[in-house]
Amino acid sequence: MCASGAFFAEGPGYRLRAFTLDDVPALAAFSEDENYWRFLSHGPRSPEQVRSFVETAMKTSQIPDGKERWWAVVDPHADVLIGTANLKQIGDAEDCFG
Fold first, then answer.
1. Residue 9 contacts by C-beta under 8 Å, 6 or more apart in sequence?
2. How far is Cα 86 from Cα 84, in angstroms, rounded to an integer?
3. Contact 45, 24 (CB under 8 A)
4. CB 91 within 8 A of CB 98
5. Which residues contact 41 (CB under 8 A, 6 or more apart)?
6. pLDDT of 9-43, one tens digit each?
7. Is the pLDDT of residue 4 over 70?
8. Of 35 and 61, the one with more pLDDT
9. Across residues 69-90, what is the average pLDDT?
10. Between 42 and 82, where is the model more confident?
11. In the list 6, 30, 77, 83, which could disulfide-bond 73, CB 3.0-4.6 Å?
12. Which stretch of DSSP H or E encloses residue 29?
């Protein structure tokens, strides 16, 4: 589990938790696999780009009223990174309920 012990959600076979810099090597390994990028709009990243992404994801996810959150998706039994998850607010909240 991450250093704080906090996680966002858990289900059979996965846990969403905050990114840590310890996730960089595993995510960099994913970045080398073309299948990981097959349905994404951008391509493979260098290890430096992956570290920058994780640092940015950590910062933006901590903004109290932020409109974007990132999580590391991990195996709940071994805390091994198996993917990423992202939620973004598109438009204003008032647009949804107005």
1. 15, 16
2. 7
3. no
4. no
5. none
6. 888 889 999 999 999 999 999 887 778 777 877 76
7. no
8. 61
9. 90
10. 82
11. 83
12. helix 24-31
Strand partners, 18: none
Token code pair at residue 79: 């805390």
CB atoms within 10 A of CB 68: 13
E-strand stretches of 30-96 = 68-74, 81-88
- Spatial CB neighbours of 58, under 8 Å, sequence gap ≥ 6: 18, 19, 20, 21, 70
Q: What span, in angstroms and rounded, lies between the C-alpha atoms of 96 and 98?
A: 6
Q: What residues have CB less than 8 Å from 95, skipping those under 6 apart?
A: none
Q: Residue 55 carries which DSSP code? A: H
